[in-house]
Amino acid sequence: MKFEDLERGIHYIDAGFRGVIQVAVLRMTYVSMVNYTYLVVDNITNQSVIVDPAWNMEKVDHALEDTGTKLSGILLTHAHPDHTDLARPLAEKYHCPVWMSNEEIMDSGFYAPHLVGIDSRPWSVGQIQIQPILTPGHTPGGMCYHIGDNLFTGDTLFAEGCGLCSDMEAAHEMYESLEHLKSRLKPDTLIFPGHSYGRQPGQKFSQVLRDNIYLQFKNKHDFTAYRLRKGQNRLSFFDFR
Ligand SMILES: [Fe+2]
């Protein structure tokens, strides 16, 4: 496998277990928007799962070709279109499950072929052990996925901020979700968010914990006052920090 495929906009990161698991970072673009999709690769059984696929199908095809893996499932952190755009065509093409939290399916009405509602129970795809962590706040059923020492966070946690919250209740939930992540992540866990605002995906949690202002608040009231401060674009799916 190539470790860099810059021409194709794909970057590979060794994600633990002595190279058994790798993460292909796919930078996806649509008009002026940029999202990160991740292909998690199991080099033993030659299977992969993809996180939040959107927009650039050719990059998914190239990453599958580069890694020589078969797509065995689609993990969705939440239902916003910039995270789910390719879920339906990929599920049809590869006849693989699409996983989303039961809460998010209920709240959003999202549908895709082979859609499977999940709770917090873990499961495995080959060597890839997937531990979902329910993290409401940006959306009512937002899910992070813990795979080895890697966390795929969608719009819950960015290196530089956290996802937008629509109201006070949502911001309280976001605070609790971030506190929950702080209580269970190891310093060396790599963070793979849905968006970047300057830092490369795959930052260590210890660094994010130190630098991210949203992880510094000591109570939900101060957190909420800051998250809902004036000047935030509350109408956009795509706003973030
Ligand atoms: Fe979102």
From TrEMBL:
Residue ranges of domain Metallo-beta-lactamase in the record: 34-195
Alphabetical list of InterPro entries matching this protein: MBL_Glyoxalase_II (IPR051453), Metallo-B-lactamas (IPR001279), RibonucZ/Hydroxyglut_hydro (IPR036866)
One function term, GO molecular function aspect: metal ion binding
Gene3D superfamilies: Ribonuclease Z/Hydroxyacylglutathione hydrolase-like
SMART domains the record matches: Lactamase_B
Cofactor(s) needed for function: Zn(2+)
Keywords for this protein: Hydrolase, Metal-binding, Zinc
One Pfam family it belongs to: Lactamase_B
Membrane-spanning ranges: none
PANTHER family, A to Z: HYDROXYACYLGLUTATHIONE HYDROLASE GLOC (PTHR46233)
Protein name: MBL fold metallo-hydrolase
